[in-house]
Structures are given as structure tokens and as C-alpha cells.
Amino acid sequence: MYRYILKRLLLMIPTLFGAAVLVFTLLRLIPGDTCELRLAGSGGYFDQSALDICRHEMGIDQPKLVQFWHFIWGIVRFDFGKSMWTGQPIVSEMAMRFQLSMEIAIVATIVAIVVAVPLGTISAVKQNTWIDYMVRAISIAGIAMPSFWLGILIILGLLIGTQYFLGTPWMPPITYTPIWVDPMKNLALIVWPAIATGYRYSAVATRMTRSAMLEVLREDYVRTARAKGLFEKLIIRRHALKNAMLPVITVIGIEFAFLIGGLVVTEQVFNLNGLGKLFVESVTNNDYSMTQALVMLVVMIFLFVNLLVDILYAWLDPRIRYR
Amino acid sequence: MKGIQVKALCAIVAGVAIGIGASGQASAETPKHGGILKYVVPDEPPSFDGHIETTFALIHPVRPFYSVLIKVNPENPSSTTDFVCDVCVGKVPEATDGGKLYTFKIRDDVKFHSGEKMTAQDVLATYQKIIFPPAGEPSARKAFFSMVESVTAPDDHTVVFKLKYPSGAFIPALAVPFNWIYQKAKLDKDIHWYETHIDGSGAFIFEKREAGAYISGKRDPDYYIKGRPYLDGFQAIFAKKESLRVQAIRGDRAAIEFRGFPPKSRDDLVAALGDKITVEESDWNCVLIMTVNHKKKPWDDVRARRALTLAVDRWGGSKYLSRIAIVKTVGGIVFPGSPLAATKEELQQLAGYWPDLKKSRTEARRLLKEAGVDLSKTYYLNNRAVDQPYKIVGTWLLDQWKQVGLKFDQHVFPTGPFYAQLRKKKDYDVSMDFNCQSVVNPLVDVSKFISDDRAGNNYGSYQDREVDALFDKMNRTADPAEQRKYMREMEKLTLDTHANAFITLWWYRIIPHRSYVKGWKISPSHYLNQSLDNVWLDQ
Amino acid sequence: MAVTSAEIDSQLAAARPPLAKAALTLIRQQPLGAVSGLLVIVMILMAVFAQQIAPYDPIANHYEFMQLAPSAKFWLGTDQFGRDILSRIIWGARTALFIGFSCAFIGSFAGLVLGVTSAYFGGWFDLLFQRIMDVFLAFPLIIMGLAVVAIYGTGAQNVIIAITIPLIPRCARVVRSSALAIREIPYVDAARALGFGHMRIILRHMAPNCMAPFLIMLTTFLGQAILLEASLSYLGLGVQEPTPAWGLMLQGGAEEYAESAPWIAIFPGLAITLAVFAFNLFGDSLRDTLDPKLRSR
After folding, report:
1. Position C23 confidence tier, pLDDT thresholds 50, 70, 90
2. Are residues B189 and B236 both part of a single domain?
3. What is the 3 state secondary structure string of B388-431?
4. How far apart are CA B84 and CA B18, in angstroms?
5. Nearest to B77 by CA among B508, B439, B507, B533
6. Which residue of chain C is at minimal alpha-carbon distance from A213?
């Protein structure tokens, strides 16, 4: 097991390196640079020497290979440096945003699990009944509905609804308060985007639960259990569900990793100051250092979550052997 | 607790006195103290240094931390000529020595938030950085001060500006709201210090920046205008989506947005909240320009360029677009509120402004044919990925050009690549560009239209020495009538005869805000009147 | 040498379920799938005959009809430029399907070829290939989209590039695992023994046998691509005005006027949801039919 984990960790290195090459190249292909944008972004005057000095300070006048080396060397030492756009340390720029994205991802995951597991199970057990059809239709709609559209409808519904019923329009807060500072205010903000994304997320998980359950219910050992005369409920809970959880965990893992930094559109709708918004801003500002750091962070999270899922697999299903 | 109340009362009296001193019509109501003003800002500023930045996104959250030498009169901000002292004493001084010498007395009671006293040396160091930056150091407004020969501080209370020639553009340039006074000691140590730090002498003390979320400030109890500011503090919340900013005001998550909303949002807010919303409106010193690429065929031909402007129905556009976008006023190259601007009659003489649209479009078609413009081709319009008003005006223009048979595709880029395209790549046939200034100063503002080897920010790739000559003549005379005459000639050449570049519609600023926000007055620029020391909350 | 290459080809063909039969099974066993299939066909017809069906020109501005509520004249109302929303939705189907099909086909075909190739050669090639796919799988989608648009600008083909690139590894990975199994069957060995070129074996003998996962991925991608296109448009990175496109219709004005003119925001959103719904349901049914493991016994 430890050897397996070690091997997987080692295999991450080429992937991370590849991602580094990719983001580095992509960013340098984008026309313009952060200095040009800052000095003349709103159409003002600028002179060439100021541009040169700025580029020198940012280090973007150096040969590409040297820049790449600095980038890689920075990652190796876990030193991401400063944002080229704001001049502030990247770690401090990211801290609060990371926290917000993490919290939404966690709340949305909880929503998804709480909704998906029972719904998916019922749908599978009652396959081809109206319950099954309902659940499937609702969950496919969840996947089909653009989450930003749902978000727009939620905010609008809140504003109009509260004005109609309470007299004064209410909307979720637009600034983030950490949960330990003011839990109510925090939740008033988090709940809505968590619902908007959680719907899609739970839809994906429900579908996976259903099909995994269906598969497991046809396995021989479930038939044996039935033949032994065990109660249906017990069979589902004790035997089927546990085994059906494996693919569900995979889906939840992948979705979770995606939510960190992948909520770009939802963040726009709710004015959430999360990593997704930072992604958009740093790319549009040609902020190389920030974008690079963000990409590496998100890729790392993705790889670790995947590893975690695989380890969970082994733990839940002793049949899986790792070499 | 009692003590504070008494203090506050005294402060109110003092505040009212100053208010009346500044202008007669102020203070129909007695300002109340206290409260936190929350407002939304569409963008986050790149750095904190006002001397190098050009975006309003820096002004809105950071200007309240700083004071300046002179500013536009906050009680009369729509005037284009009314300036008052901020850290100088008395009235804005008149020029001496035949219009070439300006002497400012600096207040004695101004303190930086870090505790040090402000002297004339700090003002001097500030303007040295702005006008004569060390080699290679950026300064966004260096070109505004091309008439300045030297700045000196003979003692700790006096700053003297010596000009090369008398210029009507000097005082407006001084009043630009980015000219924040920095401390000499800090600049000497590290000229970049102010890019990442804040230490001003304004009405508010910098409290916190939450990256990407907000910037907050708290009241400076030692502010040199006694009794000000009224607010306990403010929070400038960044919100990129316009619809969300409108919703924030509706849901009372913010009280005001200082840039400007489209008319429809104003109507929605008023419909939903009635008298809880107060609306202020003004012409806006910003305009989108159609920059034609003179280097690209067929636009090297003046006939083809004229056809582009003749196809556009500005009078109709004003009527319809003003319902969905933040543009409204038809105007020439000068801000419509300025005495130097063309009247309606004068405008109607220019191509693209004719009252008879049919005639105008027929002429456009004729010119296109005569110039042999290929109408089967699809041309390239470069535009910026900003809804209001860029993409809306762009979409409108496409439809206008379609009316005379010209087909354009809209290529939209985020700010960086948009400017790279505009300045360097130049694949476009026509590009959006904009001219947006703070203090209305037409003599300098129209420098956008002089030859590209002189203007620095003219991206049409053309040289027009006739226009340059008019521009110079206009700037060397102090006679308003003569200035106006040269301006008309320059305008006619630029927009019509030589068809160098075109104006779309001037922006129109609409600020619907919560009625409890008092003391703030709208100005023709979203850069102006943002020190917030005079704002109070009626709650 | 009694066995000819043609015979091997036909034997391989016999090893996979015939498409016509699969279609019949689909209708019989999956009524829901058939309904969604019908929806898809309607959408395709809408896209193909947009010119004939749409009541108005989708891009002509009518300033006298700005933001009108749904009426007999404009069934779904008009937008802020006075354009008919119904016409824009009908024409938008063309944009959506064009982008959706392009992305899905290019993405899944490239994935199919790459996945099979990787499985066929195996060894270090497979290992290297897998690492590259890992990079693209882990790479944040939005950065890809933002970068492509910042480099090439907006427009349909750039949107297609931005969406297709991340789809390829997803398909390649699934195809590869089923191709690994096929590699071991004797026909492929026989083909190799006959000295067929690698290309021929990969394209004619192995790829057709990975049809089931390929088709499933294809339909899934269709829905995903339409959604991604809408998201990119919402961020202002998709196709541009005045092109009629559903995601674009939801951006800018739609949100601003969502309260006083809700039809501008609601109908295009419904169009997207319905389209993706149909494609997903269709894909689902297809999977249930094609994947023998899930077929009800």
C-alpha cells in the first residue's frame, strides 16, 4: 500500500511538470503583457522607458527559458512570489479566496451526498416505476440547466419574493464573512451558490448512484442474499449500498476537485470572491505569476483528490489489489 | 459617551460653517455623523499609486485616503472651471508674471496618517514625481504638464510652479484627482512604496484590503477640516457584474455605485423602491471613438472613411441607445457641456450629423461605390469585452453599417489583448477606442486626434499636420473666442473633411442611489468629487 | 493463406452489433430515449431550416420594438435591440448544434484514435501518452478557454477549439481501456501477422470495435459542449453579437433586465436546458442499450 502511494506521488511529478509547461506556454502566447496593460490599460499616455523598467522588474524581459526556470524553481521551494498585477504576495492574495471556494465546495458536496444517495438508491430499487422516472428527469434537468442561469433565477426570486412577502427586498450578502466570525452571515452567503452548484452536482451523483446500484443488485451475492431470505432493506443497506458507493465516490471526488477553482460562472453571478474569479482576473490582467500559481494549485488538488479516491477504494473494497 | 456627542455637535456646527463658506446653496439639511458607507466598485485597482494608474477603480476606493493640492469644487462639481484649494490656503491663486507663475501657500495643519506633518516639501516631491519622474519611472500624467518649467518650494509653506508659457490647461491639470500628495521621506526611500502601501492625509485612514473583495477605511479624527468626515468609515466592495451591482443597491447591500448605471436599471430601482432611491444624472466626459485603420485598404481613402461616419444615425441612436446603454449625448470632439463644444447647429454641418439621414446614407453608398469598396467582404471591428457601453455601441454600429451595405464582424477581446490589437497588431479595419478624462480640459483632451507621432495615444496610424497646427495655435492662445474658432476648424477636419476618426455618442452618467446617502454631488466624470469627506448618511 | 484481408474485415464487422438493430432495440426498450431522440431531431430541423421557420431576421435591430413582452406578433417577446427572441432562439439552435456537433465529433474522434493508438502500441508510448492526457484532464478548463480567446479572439471556431481540447482526453481514456481488451482478441493478432500497417489495424480493425464507448461519449459531449458554450458566452468569451446564440442571449442585457423583461432571460435558458436535457437522455438510453453489462436481463 505505501509503495503504491509512493509510486502514485512520483507519477504526479511529470503531470505537474506538464501542466507547468502548458500554462507557461499558453500565457506567453497571449498578446500584451501586464506592464503594458497597467501603464496604458485605460488608454492613457505612457513612454517606452517606463515600460522597459516595469518589464525588467517583473522579469518578463528575460529569455523564456530563464523565466520558466524561475517559475519551476519557485514551485519546488513552495515560493510563489508576488502577483505581477497587485504586487502583493500571492499566498495572501489567495488565502481568503481559497477559503471561500473550499467552503462552497464542501457545502455543495454535503448537499450532493445528502440528496444523491437516497434518491439514487430509491430510483434503482424502484427501477422503471414513476419514482424512477421522476428522479431521472429531475437529475437530468440538473445536469442540463446552466448553473449561472439557475443562479440568476435564485437571486431574482429572492429579491422579488422578499419584496412581495416582507415588503423590503433582501438579497444574499455580497462580501464574505468567515464562518467563525459570524456563522449566520456566512451561511446567508454560502447557501445560495451551494444550492445552485449543488443541484447539478447532486444530479451527477444521483445518476451514478442509480446505475451503480442497478449493477450491484444484479450481482450474484445479492441474489444469494435474497435467496437466503434476507429482508430487502437489509440487503440494500448492508450489501448493495456499500459496494455501489465505489463509483459514486469517484464522481464526488472528481466533482469536488473541479469545484475548487471551477466555479467561475457561479462566482460571477453571486459576486463571490473565490478562486474562479481570481482565475479570470489574473488571465485578463496577464498576471503570469498569479495564473501559474493558481493552475499549479488546482492541478495539485485534482491529483491529490484522485489519489485519495483511489486509496478510499482500496479501503472499501479489499478485492482491489495494488501493485 | 457624552464627550463624544458634544464633540460631534461642535463638529457639525463647524462643518456647516465650512459648507456655507464654500457655497451658498449647501446644507439645507444638517449633516449627521456616523455610519459606514458601503458602495460597489466595478473593478479592483492594479496598484495603489495614483500617479501611475489611470483607472477609476483606484479613485473610488483609495482617493478618500489622500488629499490633493487643489480640486474641483465639491459643492459645484459639474462646473468645468470652478476649483478650490484642498491643502493650499485660501482661494486657488491667480497667475502672476504674465500668466507664468503660480504660488501656492500650503496649510499648516495637515498630517499624514502615519503621524508626520505635511509640508511644502511633500507637495514638491509629489509634483516632481508626477511632472519630472526619474528616468524610466512611469507617470501617467506627465504629458499634462508639458507647459511646466519648474516646481520649487522656497520654504515649508510655499510651492511655486513656473510655466514656460501661459496656459489655460495648467490649473485643470493640477486638479486631476490622481495627484495625491505623498510624503517626501517615503518617496526618497523607495519611489515604488506607494504602489503597494497607502499613507495619505485624506479624510479616511486605510483600514483593510481584502484581496478581490473590498477596501475599507475609517474616519481620521485628526482630519484638517474640523468636523469632517461625517462618516465613521466606508467599505468599497468590488463587484464585476453590473446586474449584481444594481441588485446590491436594491437589496441594500450597498448604498451607491459611483460609475453609472444604464437607464433601465435606474427605472427598475425606482419602480421597486420609490423614494428610497434618489437619482442624479449628468453629461459624462467620456466618449467611445471609432478609430479607423488608415494603413489598411480601403480605409486609406478618405471617401471610404467618410462613408463610415455618414452611415451612422447619431440623432436616432441617441434616442434609442440612451434607453439601454450609458450613452446619450450627440457631440463632436469636445465634451458637450464645455463652452468650447459645438452647438447643435454647428454639429449638423458635419458629416454623420446631418439632420437628413436618408441623404446621409445615400451619400455614404455613393462614396463607397466611388471609392470601390468591396461590399462582399466582411470587415473587422475590434472591440473590448465590456458590456456597457462598448459591446452595445459596437452591436449598434454593425447594424448602422449594414444599412449601407457594409458587413462587419465584431471581434471582442479582454482589455489586454484588446489594447494589443489596437496599438500593435492592427488587424482591424475599425476599432473602438475611448477618450475619458477627469477634469474637463478640452484643450488637452482633444490631443487624441493629432498626428500619431505626436499624440502617443492616437492609434489610427495617421499624420495630419493641418490638425496639429490648429491644435498648437489653440493651445497658445488665452482668448476663448479664438480657442473656439480653432477648435471648430480642427473638429471639421478631424470628423468630416479629412475623416480621420469618429465620435460615437457621449456617455451619460446616471447614479441611482439610496436616498439616505447625502452630501454627494454628481459631476461630469466618475473620477471627480470622490474624497467622501462631505458625504453623510441620513439614518 | 486461405484467409483474405476482406474476410478478416467482415469477421470483425460481425463481432459488433449492427447499428440498425441497435436503433430498433433502442426504440423498443427505451421509450424515454425515443422521445429525446425525437426532440433532437426537431432541434436539428430547426437548425437546418432556420431561414424558413424563423418569423423575423434574427439580427436586424428594430428600435421601435425594444423589450416588448411576448405577444401575438412576437411570440417570445423582443430583446433590448428590438430583435425577435423566437427567431433568435431558432437561429441559435444552428449555432448551438454547429458548435455542439463540431466539438463532440472532433473531440470524440480524436479521443477514439488517440485512445486506440495508445492501447495498440502500449509500452512506453502508452505511458507517455497517459501522462499527457493526465495533464489535460487536470488542467483547469476555464484557463484553456480564457487563453484561447485571449490569443485568437472570440468567434465560433475559437470557441470550438477551447471546448474540444479538454474533451479529447476524457474520451481517449475511456476508449483506451476498452481497446486494451480488444487488442488481445485473435483477429487483431491475425491482422498483424498478415502484415497490415499499424494505421489500418488501428482505424479499420480496432476503432470500430470501440463504438459503444465512443457513441456514449459522443452524446454526452454534445450536451456538455452546448453547456460550455453557454458558459463561455456568459463570461463574454463565446461567439459575439449580433450572432444569435443561446448563451450570448443570457449575457449582458438579459441579466440587467431580468426583472422588468424576464422573457429575455427565461426563454434562452429554457432552450439550453431542453437541448442538453434531450441529448443527455438520448445518451443515457443509448448507453443502456449498447452497454451489455447494463442491459436488463
Report:
1. low
2. no
3. HHHHHHHHHHHHHHHCCCCEEEEEEECHHHHHHHHHHHCCCCEE
4. 13
5. B439
6. C294
Q: How far apart are CA B368 and CA A102, in angstroms?
A: 58
Q: Specify whether domain C42-55+72-295 bears CATH 3.50.50.60.
A: no
Half-sphere exposure of B41 (CA within 13 A, CB side): 27
Q: Are B32 and B76 in a shared domain?
A: no
Q: Rounded mean pLDDT of chain B?
A: 88
With contact defined as 3+ CB pairs under 8 Å, the chains touching B are A, C
Instruction: State the cell numbers at A280.
Output: 479570470
Transcribe C17-53 into DSSP letters. Answer: --HHHHHHHHHHH-HHHHHHHHHHHHHHHHHHTHHHH
Task: For chain A, give the mean pLDDT.
Answer: 83
**Residues of chain C neighbouring B272 (CB-CB closer than 8 A):** 259
Closest CA to B254 of B269, B274, B268: B269
Asked if the C-beta of B285 comes within 8 angstroms of chain A's C-beta atoms, the answer is no
**Above 70 in pLDDT, residue B505?**
yes
Same domain, B330 and B418: yes
Q: Which domain holds residue B32?
A: 2-40+199-282+513-537
Span B84-135, pLDDT tens digits: 999 999 899 998 888 899 999 999 999 999 999 999 999 999 999 999 988 8
- The residues, any chain, with a CB within 8 Å of residue B118's CB and separated by 6 or more, are B87, B106, B107, B110, B111, B112, B181, B183, B201
Q: Comparing A177-181, B142-146, B291-295, C140-144, which segment has the lowest mean pLDDT?
A: C140-144
Residue B14 and residue B151 in one domain: no
Distance from CA of A14 to the nearest CA of C (A): 7
How would you label C235-249 residue by residue, b for 16+ Cβ within 10 Å and e otherwise?
bbbbbbbbbbbbbbb
CA nearest to A93, candidates A309, A308, A300, A279? A279
pLDDT value of residue A308? 87
Quick one: pLDDT at residue B16? 36
d(CA B221, CA C291): 75
B-interface mutation test, from C59, C61, C250, most B Cβ less than 10 A away: C61
- Taking the mean position of all CA atoms in its chain, how far away is CA A50? 40
Looking up cell 484514435, which residue turns up? C113
Q: What is the ipTM of this complex?
A: 0.83
- Altogether, the residues listed in chain B come to a count of 539
- Please check whether residue B487 lies inside any domain of the structure: yes
In chain A the domains, ranked by start, together with CATH numbers, are 2-77 (no CATH), 99-316 (1.10.3720.10)
Please report the sign of the dihedral spanned by the C-alpha atoms of residue C137, residue C138, residue C142, residue C146: negative
Task: Assign B514 to helix, strand or coil.
Answer: strand
Cβ partners under 8 Å of residue A293, min gap 6: A80, A81, A90, A94
Amino acid at residue number C98: F
b vs e for C79-112, b when ≥16 Cβ sit within 10 Å of the residue's Cβ? bbbbbbbbbbbbbbbbbbbbbbbbbbebbbebbb
C99: pLDDT strictly greater than 80: yes
Residue B23 near residue B232, CB atoms below 8 Å: no
Q: Nearest by CB to C259, which of A145, A156, A302?
A: A156
What pLDDT, on a 0 to 100 scale, did the predictor assign at position B238? 93
CATH number at residue B102: 3.90.76.10
pLDDT at B264 over 50: yes
List CB contacts of B75: < 8 A, sequence separation 6 or more. Answer: B19, B22, B23, B25, B26, B521, B534
In a domain, B523, yes or no: yes
Domain check: are B461 and B364 in the same one? yes
Q: Tell me the pLDDT band of B17, cut-offs 50, 70 and 90.
A: very low
- Please indicate whether residue A69 or residue C152 has the higher confidence score (pLDDT): A69
B382 with B479, same domain: the answer is: yes
How many domains does chain B fold into?
A: 3
Task: Name every chain C residue with its beta carbon within 8 A of the beta carbon of B268.
Answer: 257, 259-260
- What is the arithmetic mean of pLDDT over A96-118? 89
